Amino acid sequence: MPDAICFLSPSNVTAAVAIDKNFEIRKTKINKKFQYLCVNMEKIYDRLRKKHVALTPEEGVRQRFVDFLIERRGYPEGLMANEVGLTLNGTRRRCDTVVYDRNARPLAIVEYKAPSVAITQRVFEQIARYNLVMGVKWLIVSNGVTSSCCRFDLDTRQAVYLPDIPPYDSL
C-alpha cells in the first residue's frame, strides 16, 4: 500500500483539491518542481488482520464497527475475520467481515459502505449473493451512520429485520 497518493498536474495549475484525513476537501499547493501533489495516505490498525491498512471511508467504518461488535456486543475477536474470500459464479469476491460460531462455522456476514453510501436494498442484495455461498443466518450492513441487521431463514429464504444489532450470545 503506498504512503502517498499523487495527482498529476498540468503545468499551469498551482493549486488542487485534496481530501484530508477527516475526508474533508481542502485546497493544497502543488509542488512546482515535480508538478504533482502528494497526499499522505493515512493508515489505521486492523485488529483482526493484525496490520495497518489504508484509511479509506469504508475502512474507517469497518474498524469502528468491529470495535463496536467486540466492545459493546460481546463478539469474540478470535471468531471474526476481515476480507474473507469466496467464489461466486466463478468470480472471486470478499466478505468485509465474517463472524464465526464457537465451532468455527460462519454465523454472520457484515458488509460495510462509506458514510456517503446509503444502505439500500441493493446493498442487501449484494450481501445476500455472498450468502448463497456462505449460508449464514445473520446479515449485517453498516455505513457508520445507519446499520441494519436481519436474520435469514435458509429454508424459507425469508429475512426478518431487527431493530438493533444483537449481542453475540443471541446469534
Can you describe what's shown?
It is a single chain. By secondary structure, the protein is α+β, with helices and mostly antiparallel strands. Helices cover 18% and strands 42% of the residues. The strands form 4 sheets. It has a 6-stranded mixed beta sheet with strand order 7-8-9-10-11-12, sandwiched between helices. A hairpin with a 5-residue loop joins β8 and β9. The longest helix has 17 residues. The N terminus is likely disordered.
**3D shape:** globular
Question: Which structural category fits the helices and strands?
Answer: alpha+beta
Characterize the biggest β-sheet.
Answer: 6 strands, mixed
DSSP strand count: 12
Strand line-up of the largest beta sheet? 7-8-9-10-11-12
Kindly estimate the percentage of residues that lie in beta strands according to DSSP.
35-45%
* Count of helical stretches: 2
Radius of gyration in whole Å, from Cα?
Answer: 19 Å
* Low-confidence parts: 1-40
Order of helices and strands: EEEEEEHEEEHEEE
Fraction of residues in helices?
10-25%
Topology:
Elements: E1 4-8, E2 15-19, E3 25-29, E4 36-40, E5 43-46, E6 51-54, H1 57-73, E7 80-88, E8 91-100, E9 106-112, H2 121-134, E10 138-142, E11 147-153, E12 158-162
Parallel strand pairs: 9-10
Antiparallel strand pairs: 1-4, 2-3, 5-6, 7-8, 8-9, 10-11, 11-12
Short description:
With 171 residues, this protein is of the alpha+beta class. 18% of the residues lie in helices and 42% in strands.
Defining traits:
171 residues; alpha+beta; six-stranded mixed β-sheet; two-stranded antiparallel sheet; 2 helices; 12 strands; 42% strand; globular; disordered N terminus
